[in-house]
Design goal:
alpha+beta; four-stranded antiparallel beta sheet; 4 helices; 26% strand
Length: 136
């Protein structure tokens, strides 16, 4: 891991040295990302390099599928873990409780969540019907 960080720092320094300037580069002042072609150069030097760029370490995505609150969580190097929230009335009032729906190798979409929700018996009724059923 330390080797990768060192390579990224070396690439960033190489990137900064490519700017034509009569002044020495100051890391305290930074550099002008709005300079001509700076964005393309940064993309090439940092992300499109040999060995790839950065990989996302933690990602949390929120979805709404069939009116249900859903969450997808990715922690590198694992797959996406998919959850939906259901109301739990065992504590006297409605508490949101996460129910694991499954996992996915690819970034999930609302369609994936809808298919998984349709398979679970807890979600046979939609959110509104569950709330009405609990009031009666």
């Amino acid at each position: 891991m330390a080797g990768k960080v060192a390579r990224y720092i070396a690439r960033a320094i190489t990137f900064l040295k490519t700017f034509d300037s009569s002044e020495p580069i100051s890391f305290f002042r930074g550099f002008n990302i709005l300079a001509p072609n700076a964005k393309k150069l940064a993309q090439k030097q940092i992300f499109d390099c040999e060995g790839g760029g950065f990989q996302e370490t933690y990602v949390l995505s929120r979805f709404s599928a069939r009116g249900e609150d859903c969450v997808a969580l990715k922690a590198y190097p694992s797959d996406w873990e998919l959850f939906a929230f259901i109301e739990d009335y065992s504590y006297g009032g409605p508490m949101q409780t996460a129910i694991r729906l499954g996992s996915s190798k690819e970034e999930p979409t609302s369609k994936i969540f809808t298919d998984l929700l349709n398979e679970r018996k807890e979600f046979k009724m939609n959110k509104t019907m569950r709330q009405l059923n609990n009031k009666l």
